[in-house]
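Assemble and predict.
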Amino acid sequence: MSNRAEILIIDDEAPIRRLLEITLQSNDYNVTEAATAKEGIIMAASHPPDLIILDLGLPDTNGHEVLQQLREWFTNPVLILSVQKSEEDIIKALDNGANDYLVKPFRTGELLARIRSALRSTLPEENNSLINFGNLQIDLAARTVKKNNDTVKLTATEYALLALFAKNEGRVLTHQYLLKEIWGPGYINQSQYLRVFIAQLRKKIETDANRPELIVTESGVGYRFICKE
Amino acid sequence: MAALFNNKISSTKQYIFSIMLVIAVGGICYFLSTFLGYRVTAFVLLLTVSVLAMIFDILPVLFSAALSALIWNFFFIPPKFTFHIGTTEDLILFLMYFVIAMVNAVLTYKIRQAEKITRQREEKEHTVKLYNTLLNSLSHELRTPIAAIIGATDNLQNNNARLTPQNRNDLIGEISKASFRLNQQVENLLNMSRLESGFIQPKNDWCDINEIVYDAVKQIEENDIQQRITININPAIPLFKLDKGLLVQVIYNLLNNAAQHTDAGSSINISAACHTDVLQIIIQDNGKGFPADEIKNVFDKFYRLKNSKTGGTGLGLSIVKGFTEAMGGNVNLENISTGGARFIIEIAAETSYLKNLKNE
């Protein structure tokens, strides 16, 4: 990235802030920090960053409230930090406008990948209907999919699902979001549809459907389409 | 029997049951009164009260003792259908009956109280013993990685100039490994406390078994295990309505157990199939298996094999059992004749094939 992206960290734990700061600065991001929700909101308002990393467990205000306040005017990506086994919290945050999440303890590689894909989503979309993901090629104009140059036959629903993933590469999509987008609002609780179609899609596009690498399961939350370059 | 019924039946129900039993027994005796003298009836009623005393609290028993005395007096002692007692002998008998029934109730109650106290004391001793075992294994399991982290960071901070790049890499590797181990133990402890609190309510949703198995496999492979894991899932397996989080944890713990107790290069196989709405997951390895006399104990909390190496808290497999049972299933362990251990999980659950969706 030509000009360094500015990232604001809102987390009360000094060691986590320090860790994030070192990781981000050494990867050419500018970092500012806030230890409380109040401080964080003021900093975000006075000098809006390109991305905010927000810890859900803040001492002064609940992280969800901070997120809601931020989302009243802040449109850049927000990345949520959460503790383990709190899928409901994560889904709530994603519904409230968080772009992605990380669960503590997280790997720095994961952190950087999330930041990259979140920042990428704010860039203007390229007007390119042809998307390549490793050995998979999706032509959004012709609505065709090729794997190793062989055409993959997909049903209409499978294609819709894959196209939605492709447009959101690297981002987590919740079960509810996928069900709503593909099947409609009435299907939000019909999770068996999603499971069946994800399984079918994996059989067609993954190298090994038992060990899927393109459509990755985000346990209890949703799915993430990942392309390893 | 006392332990079985103790404190489990509400006191209203105890009263109702006592009254009904006494009346029923009285009724039967009444119909048999041509064969049974009224003195025998007294013993039958006394026996009824004694049985009640073994099961119920003191107040319902005293109440039924009084009731049975009155029933005996009214229906059986001549003249019948009055509370009047004809002879002095019968009056003495009636008073004796009353006293014996009461004494019986009180004594039985006291014996049961004493039993209860002994039982509580035994339970407390058992808990203390478990707690000590936990502390011992935990302090080892938590302190070892902490010691590794402190030692490695000390070296990197204070001894940096004398370390070769290789040394530095190794120390960082140790810190990383120790942190993963700590994380794992904390996870186990949290799961254990979830089980102990009894608040595990499975959140059932449709599960793709392929997905769940791979989720667990991916997690275990992040730990750089030295064993090869193969997956073998029946392609026709339906979706199951189960708690995904619990099931992943069960599989992960079994894989972790196999990885801890088999040699590098061993293989671990997971297979899954559906047998008439029962999900069967089998995890087997080609290691040494379990000592036959210890198989029955391996799922016990804090149980560790007698000859096992250091490491491990004895929590992993008890969590497997607890979580599986929380989902209404069961887990079994057997040794394979050709060597190795085989864990079999079976859980009955709602299934969905959704065949009609295929062409959508």
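Confidence is low (pLDDT under 50) at residues 1-6 of chain B.
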